[in-house]
Amino acid sequence: MIIFCFWMLVHAAQAQEETTPTRLTGLGKNISTIPVALLDQCFPYEESKTFGIEFRLPRTGGKCDDGLIICYPGSLATRTLDNAHSLNGMSVNSELFNVDNAVNNSLGKYCAGLNVSWHGIKVNTEKSNGKNIIKLSTSLLEEEEQSFEIPDAHRQFIIHFGNENEFSAYVTVEGQRIDLDVVKAEQYMQLAPNGAHLKDFVGFWTLGLDMLPWMDHEVKLFINRSCSCSMEAWFIRPTDGEPNDPEEPSTGIGGPKAKCIVNTTKEVPLNNRLKANHLIRIQMLIDGNALDNSITFAILNEYRNVLMKFKMSTGQNATIQMKWPFKPVSIENANLPEGNGTRHADFIIALTEYSYGIVMNKKLLGGKEFFPAKWTNGLPFNDMKSLWLSGQFLLLTDPLVMPFHMLGQQNYKPQEQKLPYWERISIVQPDTNVIFRVKLGQNDNDFNISLLHNRIDLHKSEDSIGAEVLTLRVQPEKDQIWRPSRTGPVPILMGEAKLEAQKAYEFTLVMLKSYQYKIILGNFYFHKNATMPIWATNFVRVEGNITLLGRPEVEPPPEQQRTYNFSIQLKRPLDYNDTIQLKLNTQDKTKNLSILLMHDALRGNNEIGGVVLGMFFHFDGYKCTLYCSSVLSADPVKEDTGIAEVKNLTGIVDGRLNKYGQKFDMDITALNDNFKIHIKEVKLTHLCPYPESNGTFYPPWAVDYIRFENDVQVHAMNIMHPPTSEQRNFMQINDTNDLVQAGDLITVKLAITGDLNDNSSVAINLFHQALEFNEKVGKTVMKVMLNSASLYFNSSKPLINNSTNERNCTNGKLDKELKELKIGVMDKGFFNVTLTWNNDSSTTCTYTNGLPEWAVQYITVEHNDVTLSNPPNIICVPEKRYDEEPENHSTGIFGKVGRIVTVALAMSSRLGGADATRRGGAVYGRNLKSNQLPNNNWMAPPPPMAMRSAKVYDSKHSPAEYLKKFAQDFRRKTGMHSQRHHEETTLEQEKRVAGAGPDPIHHQDTTLEQEKRVAGAGPDPIHHQDTTLEQEKRVAGAGPDPIHH
């Protein structure tokens, strides 16, 4: 090595700066030229740094049975200069160091075909005694000794071309050194002074002498990697850092004419290895440029019938089909990876005791597991005999079966939920199913299933947030389910329905009408009345000592073509000076049309929310009249009717609309004291005052839903905001990304300038359903206010025994040097507030009397007699849970923050242009999208569709009679009935065991025979026959069988 380094001193050395390893195996790559400075190895700046080549298989598994070949110009190969002289890498006219390819070595012949002086090495994987091994070969040795097995190398190893002390090549595996051909190297070192020829002792130990250049300053390499080889290789230098695994595994190109990814059909025996909490892992490469690729996996029984089939295609939603019934279930937003070139797809088919989970590239498709019919009996593991795969792909490894948890690694996490569990759900409409799948422990383990409104736990008197819509208390030991009634909990007589320990069950709640629901348990069902409107549900909760087998599943009702009586939820609350812009038109011979601005409700009712503003147009002959009213559930009910009073906000005015139909634009602007209604086409301007309840006026931000009823077509809708400088400073909680919880941090940065006085104050409010304090609307979760004397806390938490929620902290106060205020969220309504001044001194006060932290929806900052150089800056952690207030003049309520954004509402089963599903009469605005348009543009309206009322009003009445009739009809349509109407029936009347079905007179429902679900008798055997594999064979290229489909 001393001679070698002395020789290298002749050549200039490059400065040693950290460099990047050269990847030799990128997609489509087969030639690499790497600059080298050989003195870097003689004088490495880090111990053990050398020249070499590192080989790795993917961490997720891989193989290289056909081998990875690297050809290179041999520094020891003989080159002819002229008739009298020859040259190798070390000397002229000396045969002492000449080493050529072995005569009968096929690898040598391959590399020599590139250039006569080129040599080569090859790395490949093999199966030996059931294990994967890695072998290294060289073109310098004859066939019988050219291959060397790398001990303990299963994924990675490095060939080092000597080091600062020696020139013999060696291997390391996970940092452990393995010497190559030790005997040959020692023999040569002993005999070299006597003129021994290197070719007589050549072996793996000479790879460094042969691969590193002696005269040039670069290494040239040619790489051949087959389609089936996923091994990666890097040329490393002493100055290189650690190579990084590529983000996605790749394979070679297999030559210029080879195509790696082709139509493939493969069946793999499972050998009875599948059982509960095991998975099948399938790793493949696909063509990201393919326009019509389709991948199919199927688990087959011994008769090659399909038990489960998964199909994923380019540009289409994936589907999963499971036995009984064998009907495709669409998996939203699940498509094959697309992009230029080859893409990696790492699939997992996870099998729990009862369900299938499909994972692709670490993402659970559909965000849930899939349960077949009759899932409570468990998956048919004993029938699962083979896995069938079809499509255009290249398998990186054979499919592997392994447990979810193996060798300390969690390969898949089942979707079982820890109790108590709560979750926000979408709007519940008639015919919506909410499914809970549970497994019982011991029979004496009771549990609750709850439907909640604006809260995540059962109702508590100490917080007064939201409402408990429905709670079912299940007692397996007694085979009883307790339901609420207006007189207290009432048991449901379950008849033959039994609950057994260690068994799984599916509870389905079917929402029938506003105050009616149905419980389905296996083959049994029970109709019941509710005490609260079911549509108010926006959270579900499960608690008890049981196993919740997955997230509760909401099945919306079938999309309906009717388009009347629907509600839209606003993305953000209406505020002062906001304008609702509507593009509408009436039908020919219109009788009535209604536009309702709702608070906390989809429709009018007597328990939750109310109608802040109802705008009613009535046509009597050629005359159109307009009338404004409100109905507030906060008002006391009338003794004679048992419902809240409909309040007239204005008298009847001329509505001016054309009975025979006309298009018109309506603007509804929230002014300081009233709503202004303006229809420019008929020059109508009408003011409707804000409703009042017990001396308190409802503000515009009480409006969070808009409802359209009767004969009206809605083409587009937009909300116009005032300039940013005139908007309220607030932050909205993004409750689609969880709610505020313990550990969150809210920071308000202040920049106070000017003098302060005794009236100066700054307040930070954490509100629920409010943008400022109001006696009737919303709650204050926690308020912290600073003035020149102290720091004060307050909240809307109900008082007990004349107690107070107010607290002051004299350690903190408002002054010009105050830099920021931090609110640390704790549990159970506890908050830590820390004040920090410009000199970085700070003080902390704790408030323990707030409302639950999860109730926070809006954060506002108010200041009085305080001059700020900049508006208060609110910073929240984690950031994803909080939405900053938009800094724009107009925000489409369904669109992204930007300029005027309008939404076309195609009045059909879908709201066209807004991508919002109307589920039986409601649109959940948070999920809607729209394009952003310039300020003077509206989205092109879709074809209009009529919105007909359920009943046509009789117009032959006086105005007073009409108003009375209208109020009665309004109550009927909006579900506002007296308490007497919803009184619970007696136990005898409610006795409707599943065997006999509901009282057909009382419910006008189908009988049990008509209601029989799949779980009881199974699907129609003729219609749902199992298909054989031959019938199911549909190679991706050919598409589906047109006869079968």
Please explain how this structure is put together.
- The protein folds into five domains: 21-236; 262-410, Jelly Rolls (Sandwich), CATH 2.60.120.200; 421-558, Jelly Rolls (Sandwich); 566-724 and 892-927, Jelly Rolls, CATH 2.60.120.200; 728-884, Sandwich (Jelly Rolls), CATH 2.60.120.200.
- 7% of the residues lie in helices and 36% in strands.
- It has eleven helices and 72 strands.
- The longest helix has 16 residues, at 959-974.
- It is elongated and about 120 Å long.
- The model is unreliable at 1-14, 885-964 and 973-1045 (pLDDT under 50).
Briefly characterize the structure:
This protein is mainly beta and 1045 residues long.
Structural category:
mainly beta
Sketch the major β-sheet. Answer: 11 strands, antiparallel
C-alpha termini separation: 74 Å
Total tally of structural domains? 5
Q: Which key phrases capture this entry?
A:
8-stranded mixed sheet, Jelly Rolls, disordered N terminus, 36% strand, 5 domains, 11 helices, 1045 residues
Please write out the topology.
Blueprint: H1 2-8, E1 22-23, E2 31-35, H2 39-42, E3 52-56, E4 68-73, E5 79-80, E6 86-87, H3 106-112, E7 118-128, E8 131-138, E9 147-149, E10 156-160, E11 170-173, E12 176-179, H4 182-191, H5 207-211, E13 218-225, E14 232-236, E15 262-269, E16 278-287, E17 294-300, E18 306-313, E19 318-322, E20 329-331, E21 342-351, E22 356-360, E23 363-364, E24 386-395, E25 400-403, E26 405-406, E27 409-410, E28 421-424, E29 433-439, E30 447-453, E31 467-475, E32 480-483, E33 490-493, E34 504-513, E35 516-521, E36 524-529, E37 539-544, E38 547-548, E39 553-555, E40 566-569, E41 579-586, E42 592-599, E43 610-620, E44 623-632, E45 646-648, E46 653-654, E47 663-670, E48 674-679, E49 684-689, E50 692-693, E51 696-697, E52 705-710, E53 712-720, E54 730-733, E55 745-749, E56 752-753, E57 761-768, E58 779-787, E59 791-794, E60 807-809, E61 818-825, E62 831-837, E63 842-847, E64 858-864, E65 867-868, E66 873-877, E67 882-883, E68 890-891, E69 903-904, E70 910-911, E71 916-917, E72 922-923, H6 959-974, H7 987-990, H8 1000-1003, ...
Parallel strand pairs: 40-72
Antiparallel strand pairs: 1-14, 2-13, 3-10, 3-14, 4-7, 4-13, 5-6, 7-8, 8-9, 10-11, 11-12, 15-24, 16-21, 16-24, 16-25, 17-18, 17-24, 18-19, 19-20, 21-22, 22-23, 26-27, 28-37, 29-34, 29-38, 29-39, 30-31, 30-37, 31-32, 32-33, 34-35, 35-36, 40-52, 41-47, 41-53, 42-43, 42-52, 43-44, 44-45, 44-46, ...
Protein name: Galectin domain-containing protein
Region (Disordered): 238-257, 972-1045
GO molecular function: carbohydrate binding
